[in-house]
Amino acid sequence: MSARNRELANLILAGLVSTAAFASVTIALEDEVAYGSLVWVAVFAGVYLVAHLIARRTVPHADPALLPLAAVLSAIGLSVIYRLDPDDASRQAVWVVVGLAFFVGTLVWLRFDYRVLERYKYLFGLGAVLLLLLPSVPGLGLEVNGVRLWVEVGPLQFQPGELAKIMLVVFLAGYLRDKREVLAQGRLKDFGPLLAIWGAAMLVLVQTSDLGSALLNFGIFLAMLYAATGRALYVAAGLVLFLGGAAALYNALDRVQQRVTVWLHPWTDDKVYCSLNGLMEYRQNCDSYQLVKSLYSIANGGYGGTGLGQGTFTSVEGTPLIPYLNTDFIYSAIAQELGLIGASAVLLVFMVFVARGMRIALVAQDGFSKLLAVGLTFGFALQTFIIVGGVLRVVPLTGITMPFVSYGGSSIVANFIMLALLLLVSNRAGAAAAERR
Amino acid sequence: MNRQIARVAAAAMLLLVGLVVATTYWQTWARPALAERQDNEIQRVAQFEIERGEITAHGRRLARNRERKVAGRTLYFRRYPQGALTAHVVGYSTQSRSRAGLERSLNDYLTASNQDLSDFVETSLNKLRGKPVQGNNVRLTLDLEAQRVALEQLGDTCGAVAALDPRTGRVKVIASSPSYNPNLVERRFDEIAKIGAACSPAAPLINRATWGLYPPGSTFKVVTASAALDSDRYTPASTFVDPGYCIAYGKRVNNYDTSSPFGTHSLVTALQYSVNSTFCKIGQALGAKRVLEEAKDFGFYEAPPLETPESERRASGLYEDGELYYPKRNSDVDAGRMAFGQERLLVTPLQMAMVAGAIGNAGILMRPYVVDRIVSPAGEIVQKTKKERIRRAVEPTTARDVGEMMVRAVQSGTGTSAQISGVRVGGKTGTAETGIAGRNVTWFIAFAGPEGERPKVAIAVVLENQTSTGGATAAPIARAVMQALLDSTANT
């Protein structure tokens, strides 16, 4: 079976899973399978089918698993968002369509040779830094929850950080391919780029107060630097620098400080100062309210979960228990309703996605392609780790999205562009292999 | 470069595997501890998804559920249609998981978490079908009409009424005044806090009938008289000379009414007219421990075994510094003063109703119970309370003789205002002086039934902050409640 036929078969499977998920949500919420809601599933499947048909023409030799995996993740995300707030779900559905349009656009635009991107690597690098700093421009940036990650232009809000991440990977792939032999020597002066990027990461951290996006971008850089040079020393030095820098800035950054305190001691037996209302409160009723309620939600899932649509997310009075459940905390909704089995299955989908992405990096022919694939895939894995790990209290909680699953337009669009780039890299290697046969 | 890529891939996978491990930790290992936490609102909501069992008495609902849809799910909220009428027995169950009364002690039954394995399979299936868990229904023995009379009679006075059927132990009345409306506990607790009565603190939430401790006054003479007869050292005809006072530890203890000493009289007369000096002598002759042993046979020194929470019941007996106290030696206690209900004796109304009941029931003490049966949602009986004998408290002849003395006290003694025409009533008054004017605790304990039959009713009435005597204040209330109970038992 050709790669694209396998993709179609996988997509049909993904469609069945999505239909089951959506149907069980509507049954739980409305006691019946609403006919109108099934139209949504059909539209959803149709859009993916169109994406598949375009992929057939543009990337015939690409990996057959990635698009269906993205379909499964976005369907799970949509089902859970629908279950939490149907209005948000229709907006998210529109964003999935827009994201797939970007996916198709990227495929069509770069169908001949995506390596033209390498030529504009410095432009991408500059773009990445500008986008990351955009939210801290007065009048443009928007502070949400004490963190400056958003940009507001008229009625439109978006998180430029999501797009910046991809541009950074493109820049680093081009730059490191150029300089890898030199940097691989590991002389003292070769630490220059490392220090420069570290400086940029610290600047972003100070400007946005967001540990998550700084950690994500710096982590992508370290992974790509290691892949390019094979020097573990860079990774060690980079981690020391990052943690040292973050520790040095710790006292100056209230927001980071608060997040770390919440992470280490979410529950207190005595009342402590509450920064939200200036009174003395138990921390679980104040700064760590969100995290603690989310942990209760996860724990309530147990092995099998409550079932889709059966979880408890509102109080007896009907008010939501966990703020930002749709975006930052969607994993805690998934974990409660699908339980350990379902949440692990979702993480398994992420793992398969990462495995396929890394495989693309392994079989790619040239350095730029390899670095591009490894950077995009590692970024995908690290982003998932930072947000889900934050929800699970493995790392301090930061407000980034769970790829393909969380509610949010910028994230969906950026992830579909990333998917298109991975398929383009994969297609090139696949085509070369087919030629050799 | 592929070796490095493989390592980066391994690192990425390791990160995701870490997430699976962390998820496992929270959903299995840490789960029970998180479920226990007070601020875990999910567990709180879960309580409301259970259709809690109803509590009824003779077909009238005392606690029921009101269904309400909240954010797409059905929740069950508790309502108490009878309001303050049975508040102290039924109690309340609120959203903040605070509970009292049977709502607390029978929570496992009411939420159906008392189930065995086959029930567990059934409820699991229901859960899959999306049906709510249904709790078991509880039927009580209370007589609501008599209960209403008792509360009405108590009015603004602080006090309590406990009444039961001495033949079976079925509790008919548990009234505590002031009472409160359990529907207000949830949101309008300040209105309960504002409840006032002729005592301070009014403490409306306390069940005075089972938790209130009062000096028994002369009602304890029933216990002393029983001890005297059971000891075989006295008979009803034993004679005494009353000087109008009794010497205890070199001090004079006067009779209630010192104006006319009784002179030479029998034990029957002593109980009939409540002669302190005589019981003082009997107590000193028997010794404190002998009298207390008799009291134990009536159930003292143990909280009466009712189904309400243990924390809402207290044992009767001698108290020292707020603790139940049993003397090691006779000389530790002033037996003379104890014998007529002073010293450090403190008793609950339910206990005194049990004393009157055991005398009326030929000396047999029955286990008091307020839960008639527990019925599953399908109508099957989960548990049915059978009448149970605790022990023989006194000899049959003693019960007969002391009972006769109590009947005389009502016929022509201190308790005449408890007379009911055509009914045999035996009673004993009590007036415990606190030494402060207007702060007397007054009592009346009694049994009643048709002539020639075992008494059907035993009762204890206690009133706080009284200026007058038990015969004048408590006996009429006992009369009204007994009348109501006899009327309704006559109909059934």
Number of strands of chain B: 22
How many strand elements of chain A?
5
What is the radius of gyration of chain B computed over CA atoms, rounded to a whole number of angstroms?
A: 28 Å
Report the principal-axis shape of chain B. Answer: elongated
Q: Low-confidence spans of chain B: pLDDT under 50, at least 5 residues?
A: none
Strand order in space, largest sheet of chain B: 3-2-1-6-17-18
The main β sheet of chain B shows up as: 6 strands, mixed
Percentage of residues in helical conformation of chain A? 55-70%
Sequence of secondary-structure elements of chain A: HHHHHEEEHHHHHEEHHHH
Termini separation of chain B comes to: 95 Å
Structural class based on helices, strands and sheet pairing of chain B: alpha+beta
Strand order of the largest sheet of chain A: 1-2-3
Number of discrete helical segments of chain A: 14
Secondary-structure content class of chain A:
mainly alpha
The largest β sheet of chain A comes out as: 3 strands, antiparallel
C-alpha geometry of chain A: globular
**Low-pLDDT stretches of chain A:** none
